[in-house]
Amino acid sequence: MTDDATPVEESPSASDHTPSQLPAPTPVKDGNPPGTSPQYARMHTVIRRTCYVLLFGLVLEGALTFPLLAVWYGFPKLSLTQVCSELQKVTYSDEARKCDVPYSFPGPPLAGPAEAQGQHTSRDVTGIQPKPLYDKVEFREFVKHYQICQQFEGRPDKELRNLSPQQQQFREYCAYIADRK
């Protein structure tokens, strides 16, 4: 190389630029985001807004499901453990079922047997589309059962002879629960 040779300039790379020297972003064509053709711009906007509404709805549903169901089953009058035990009794058609509190950690499915392993009292029809055969739980029904059982507790047998058929059914239900405790 001779001294009179002109130096060759290298093309600048993106890493050589400072933020003020970066090339301006390409303008958005027709106000649409990159990759959206003008024909589908409105559809993309509707889909995006619909997704936002549905996601918001899912978050709201998830936040309200447990508190509303707890009230439906009778939470203020019954503790959450009592509500859980009543649900277990209905689900498995077994009056001896109860919730284990505190729940052992790590419990199923991480360690130990499944919660209802060996449980054969459920009256469900199994198959491709299983069908539960237990009765639907009405609004605050567990509270009524609990209060009726409290009424029968401690009453002498002489008073319990003249009961209506429905009261007799509840008495048998409460006696069954009391025998299992």
Can you tell me about this structure?
With 181 residues, the chain is an all-alpha fold. It folds into 2 domains: 38-72; 74-180, no CATH class. It has 4 helices and no strands. The chain has helices at 41-73, 80-92, 141-152, 165-180. Helix 3 packs across helix 4. It is elongated, with a radius of gyration of 34 Å. 4% of the residues are buried.
Q: Which terms would index this structure?
A:
about 180 residues, mainly alpha, 4 helices
State the end-to-end distance: 102 Å
What is the rounded Rg?
Answer: 34 Å
Number of strands: 0
Overall geometric form: elongated
Please tell me the overall pLDDT. 76
> Low-confidence parts, pLDDT < 50 over ≥5 residues?
none
Number of domains: 2
Fraction of residues in H or I helices: 40-55%
List SSEs in N-to-C order.
HHHH
Q: Number of helical runs?
A: 4
Q: What fraction strand?
A: under 5%
What is the compact description of this entry?
The mean pLDDT is 76. α3 crosses α4 (165-180).
